[in-house]
Amino acid sequence: MENCISVHFFKIPKHFDDFENLRKGLTIQYPGTVLPTLSSSILSSFLEPNTTERTVELEEFLRFIALTPKLATSHVTLEFLGLNEFHVNSSRIL
User: Fold this and answer.
1) Which of 29, 41, 54, 63 is least enclosed by beta carbons within 10 angstroms?
2) CB 12 within 8 A of CB 81
3) How far is CA 85 from CA 5, 27, 32, 53, 61, in A?
4) Mean pLDDT across the chain
């Protein structure tokens, strides 16, 4: 019997700082794991960033996390996604 994976899509309102905090939290929790870098938001205060490029970058960052089981099930990631422990356990993500 083949394994079936259920995929759910949802949108969550986040700012770039939220993604930076997610990256910092995962770096602290898994110091040996090399995470993709995020463009500095310091430049965005001087130049308006191309939102399409920023969106692609953040989607690639989240895809990397989703494809890395220890990162995808980390409490840091689950909090970022707004999932509480009850929801996570009932969905069998862990």
Assistant:
1) 63
2) yes
3) 20, 22, 26, 33, 23
4) 79
- Which residue in the block uniquely carries the two structure tokens 């310091």? 42
56-70 pLDDT tens trace: 899 999 999 999 999
Structure tokens at 79: 């909090």
Cα separation, 27 vs 57, in Å, equals: 18
Residue that is written with structure tokens 């960052």 in the block: 61
What are the DSSP calls for the chain, one per residue? Answer: ---------------HHHHHHHHHHHHHH-TTPPPPP---STGGGTS---HHHHHHHHHHHHHHHHTSHHHHT-HHHHHHTT--HHHHHHHT--
d(CA 78, CA 93) in angstroms, rounded, equals 10
With beta carbons less than 8 A apart as the criterion, state whether 89 and 83 touch: no
Q: Which residue has the higher pLDDT, 51 or 75?
A: 75
